[in-house]
Design a protein that fits this description.
The structure holds two protein chains of two kinds.
Chain A lengths: L1 E5 L7 E7 L13 E2 L1 E4 L2 E5 L9 E9 L4 E5 L5 E3 L7 E5 L13 E5 L18 H12 L3 E3 L33 H4 L5 H15 L6 H24 L2 H27 L17 H4 L7 H27 L3 E6 L8 H5 L4 E9 L9 E8 L1 H6 L3 H13 L2 E4 L8 E4 L10 E3 L4 E2 H8 L4 H5 L5 H8 L3 H8 E5 L2 E4 L6 H14 L4 H15 L4 E3 L6 E4 L7 H4 L5 H14 L3 H16 L5 E4 L9 H7 L4 E4 L20 E4 L8 H7 L1 H10 L14 H12 L5 E5 H5 L33 H5 L2 H13 L7
Parallel strand pairs in A: 10-11, 10-26, 11-12, 12-15, 15-23, 24-25, 25-26
Antiparallel strand pairs in A: 1-5, 2-3, 2-6, 4-5, 6-7, 6-8, 13-14, 13-16, 16-17, 18-22, 19-20, 21-22
Helix pairs in contact in A: 1-7, 3-4, 4-7, 5-7, 13-14, 15-16
Chain B lengths: L1 E7 L6 E7 L13 E2 L1 E3 L4 E7 L9 E8 L4 E4 L5 E2 L9 E5 L15 H7 L28
Parallel strand pairs in B: 1-9
Antiparallel strand pairs in B: 1-5, 2-3, 2-6, 4-5, 6-7, 6-8
Chain lengths: 772, 147
């Protein structure tokens, strides 16, 4: 008899055992249970020769504690049965059904903080990979079992603070140089350099944010110095050669790209000399014997050590039972190694973004090219296999940013700056005939050109109306007005205003106001023509909010509204479901990571079902409920396969949110926190933060993950004075400076025994710290 | 060597179970050529017995597949490919008493790396694993067979 049971949920120090009616299974005497081997974990096995195989055998699995040598749990429910077997020649191999745990489904809690936001005494003005160990130690002390970070890939494109944005990587494989801890590479041999480094460390760590440019300048300088110092030994290092051979597919082009970026002063490879616009020279450039090798060798050195430091930190976490969860950006950057080496995989003329939502009323334009899924399918999604496989080198769980993009992506035409004139792709646009049937008429000018009349110009530009009209507009007949040829699109408007700004910086405020007004006029259309099929149109998103819609005749408005509703909420459901079921499985099954999807925004009805079928966890943010009829979500209603969280890096912190809108806060305090008829405190006091955290901890969701800022909100003594300084990103600002750094060194947080015990108590009482 | 597949499964009318795998008798991963199982109403089990030569067993893999004649649907069970046991001498008959592994079950996510590599990570075994158990358990849970 071979007993086998697949059961991952067994604590270290415990084993599975089998106990049953046969004498060889202990004859129901727990002291004689047969302990199973974990050599094939998560499958447990034991070979047993039954004493009386010809009789029916009853048995159960249990959990056996190696420390006490006792069975600490015997599974609930009926006995398992083995039919009599009389043939002595028979070997029975069981693959039994799952262990019946006595407690509720497993649930855990975690903390979220970008790596750059980690603060330690050893870091050089920014969080570094070894600092993850400090956060892991703190997580262990507080009973948290997940550390969630933002994307960690290299985003060095311009060598300015703009590169602080972590979602526009120049390589989906390479790691960002800012995360390298210099001391862990090697000690600087030059005493003067050592002293200078120590001084810079003090200066940069004294700042209450990540001062990206001076921090990177310091890193580059000492990385170059270390490279020169260590070069000889490094190039002879067998570990490096193994790394280079194993990772060559991305590493060699990346090193070449980075060296060329610095040689030509731009990551925009279309501006490089012709011979480098394709990766044809990659091997020659990175040849160790070439005279210019150091330009590229530096990046081998850098990536070898970054990889080593991150893997060490992850191994440290795993050994302590802590999951490190990574983040997969939805897009790739257009000036990246990926676009340089495999342009056929992307639609480089397109811009990806997100439709309008709570984050931004005009939508978001990330300017990422969209994926050419048809091309990717040709080789069985190799690119995704490689990308996910590489992430699995570091992470055991992964957040997929904007998972809705796998169903349909918001595609914005190149001439648009804002996101409102985009359309979903793929989609099923209406034909002209269909629109005509449903509206009763079709007039291209009225439906597809910006709706501008004199009273509109007056409303938008007030006293400046005549001047703006004279400069940018012209009569189009029958009272209609159109934008002049040179400012027909937002990109044209942007260029014109940029020139004015450059010429007359004193008038900056006025020109920005003018630009906003012109952009708004360009958005005043009801339909957007499809760029593939002639005479096919997408209703403009949020068109019922437009002036153009409001000024339609009474008969047309309800018809157009019905058509709009059909388009965005019904017409595509089956179509987008098929898209998700085609694109997500190769990503989901490429590795064995636990996958969580960031599914906030305008969610097609088919998304939750597809995610459930694929075992992908959804994200539930209290203040952004998926159900549009509710103002606030309640963590109690989240399904098991989900992550609940009071906020994300794209929002204000709990404390910041509390102070934004007193009326809303009052409503939340009464309806969601249950303080009916009581006035809400003006600030999110520690006891309020505690109630909100508890609500999340007691959710049935598999995970409750908290931004570190929201956890320290529990302590009046530890939390930062100004909550607004704790917001990581402001999504409505496309060029936000990502500079948030936690205000306390993690060494100091670790020493807060009382606070840490309080957090641990909250987590334990909620049942999010249980083994079997 | 006699090989017997058996698993409990309550099918609906129009559904049937087959076993598909690397062995020629199991269709070499072609679902059309998979081995049909027979339903035994008394036990509620689907079974099939066949003869294979013992030297074929090493490295052989298989999975169950639910065929639905109502809509032509093919539904693979969840999880990594099953491996046939090795070192079964001196036995002449091998009974594989399996359970259908239903896809889209929340518990399936406990087999991901978050759980097996971190949360419930087993300490590195002090002694080398028993012979025949050399492959680490980092298998891909796939909706279709990993080949």
């Amino acid at each position: 008899m071979r007993f086998r049971l697949a059961a991952p949920r067994v604590e270290p120090g415990q084993q599975l055992c089998v106990l049953g009616s046969d004498a060889a299974l202990g004859a129901w005497d727990a002291a004689r249970a047969v302990v199973l081997s974990d050599a094939d974990y998560p499958t447990w096995t034991a070979d047993v020769k039954l004493t009386t195989p010809a009789a029916e055998t009853r048995y159960k699995y249990g959990i056996w504690d190696a420390g006490t040598g006792q069975v600490v749990d015997l599974e609930a429910g009926d006995d398992r049965l083995l039919a009599p077997e009389t043939n002595p020649q028979t070997l029975r191999v069981l693959a039994d059904n799952q262990y019946r745990h006595p407690t509720a489904p497993w649930r855990g809690a975690g903390v979220a903080l970008p790596v750059f936001s980690l603060r330690s005494r050893q870091g050089l003005g920014v969080g570094e990979f070894p600092d993850l160990k400090l956060l892991v130690d703190w997580a262990v002390a507080t009973g948290l079992q997940m550390v969630q970070v933002l994307p960690i890939n290299d985003t060095v494109a311009t060598h300015t603070w703009v590169d602080s944005y972590p979602y526009a990587a120049i390589s989906v494989f390479a790691l960002h140089p800012q995360y390298l801890n210099l001391e862990a590479v090697a000690e600087l041999l030059d005493p003067a350099a050592r002293q200078e480094l120590a001084q810079l460390r003090d200066e940069l760590n004294a700042r209450d944010f990540v001062d990206y440019e001076p921090m990177m300048a310091a890193k580059w300088r000492f990385i170059r110095q270390l490279y020169q110092q260590e070069k000889k030994a490094f190039l002879a290092d067998a570990d490096f050669h193994a790394f280079r051979a194993e990772q060559a597919a991305w590493l060699v082009p990346y090193a070449a790209f980075s060296g060329l970026r610095d040689r030509f002063g731009t990551a925009d490879f279309s501006q490089w000399p012709a011979e480098y616009r394709t990766p044809a020279q990659v091997e020659a450039l990175t040849d160790e014997t070439s005279a210019d090798f150091d330009e590229f060798g530096l990046f081998f050195f850098l990536q070898f050590h970054l990889d080593k430091q991150l893997r060490e930190a992850v191994a440290y976490a795993r050994e302590r039972g802590v999951v490190v969860k990574g983040d997969l950006p939805i897009g790739i950057y257009r000036h990246s190694v990926d676009a340089w080496t495999q342009p056929e995989l992307y639609h480089l003329h397109q811009q990806a973004g997100a439709p309008p939502d709570d984050f931004s009323t005009t939508g978001q334009n990330w300017r990422f090219p969209t994926y050419n899924w048809e091309q990717m399918a040709l080789d069985g999604y190799q690119w995704w296999q490689q990308r996910m496989g590489h992430l699995a080198r570091y992470f055991d769980a992964l957040r997929i940013d904007h998972i809705l993009g796998f169903f349909r992506i918001w595609e914005i035409p190149a001439h648009s700056v804002e996101g409102l004139l985009g359309h979903f792709s793929p989609a099923l646009p209406f034909s002209q005939q269909e629109i005509e049937q449903r509206l009763g008429w079709f007039d291209y000018g009225r439906l597809c050109e910006p709706y501008i009349r004199w009273h509109v110009v007056q409303e938008v530009f007030g006293g400046q109306a005549q001047a703006v009209f004279d400069e940018f507009m012209e009569e189009a007949g029958h009272g209609a007005i159109r934008l002049q040829e040179f400012v027909r699109t937002q990109r044209q408007m942007e260029a014109v205003i940029n020139d004015k700004l450059a010429a007359d910086p004193a008038q900056t405020e006025y020109y920005r106001w003018l630009r906003a007004g012109l952009f708004g006029l360009a958005n005043e259309v009801l339909f957007v023509p499809d760029d593939q099929q002639p005479d096919h149109y997408h209703p403009r998103i949020t068109l019922p909010l437009s002036r153009s819609f409001r000024e339609l005749d009474e008969a047309t408005r309800p018809r157009l509204e019905a058509l709009y509703h059909d388009f965005f909420y019904q017409r595509h459901e089956g179509f987008w479901r098929e898209q998700g079921l085609t694109k997500l499985p190769p990503v989901r099954w490429a590795t064995n990571m636990l996958i969580c999807g960031e599914d906030l925004g305008m969610v097609p009805a088919s998304v939750p079902g597809v995610m459930r079928d694929l075992g992908i966890l959804g994200l539930h943010i209290q203040r952004m409920p998926a159900d549009p009829t509710t103002e606030f979500g309640h963590p109690d209603t989240a399904p098991y396969l989900s992550v609940v969280s009071p906020g994300s890096h794209d929002m204000s912190t709990l404390r910041g949110w509390w102070e934004e809108d007193p009326a809303r806060t009052q409503h939340f305090f009464e309806t969601t926190l249950g303080h009916h008829g009581q006035p809400a405190p003006a600030f999110c006091e520690p006891w309020v933060a505690r109630e909100i955290l508890e609500q999340h901890l007691y959710s049935p969701s598999m995970w409750a993950v908290f931004p570190l800022q929201d956890v320290v909100a529990l302590s009046a003594g530890l939390r930062r004075e100004d909550p607004l300084a704790e917001q990581i990103n402001v999504p409505s600002n496309p060029t936000h400076f990502w500079k948030y750094r936690f205000h306390l060194p993690l060494e100091e947080l670790a020493a807060q025994a009382g606070f840490n015990a309080e957090v641990r108590g909250l987590v334990e009482r909620s049942g999010r710290q249980q083994g079997y | 060597m006699i090989l017997r597949f058996t698993l409990p499964y309550r099918t609906e009318p129009g559904q049937r179970l087959v076993v598909c795998g690397s062995l020629p008798a199991l269709g070499q991963w072609a679902p059309e050529a998979a081995l049909a199982l027979h339903y035994d109403a008394a036990s509620g089990h689907w079974n099939r017995e066949l003869e294979v030569s013992a030297d074929q067993l090493a490295g052989a893999t298989y999975k169950y597949l639910l065929l639905d004649e109502r809509d032509g649907g093919r539904h693979w069970e969840w999880g990594p490919n099953r491996e046939l046991p090795t070192a079964v001498a001196p036995f002449g008959r091998l009974v594989l008493a399996d359970w259908w592994r239903a896809p889209a079950q929340p518990e399936n996510e406990l087999f991901t790396a978050a759980f097996t590599e971190a949360l419930f990570r087993r300490p590195a075994p002090a002694a080398p694993a028993a012979p025949g158990c050399g492959r680490p358990g980092r298998a891909l849970p796939a909706g279709s067979p990993a080949r």
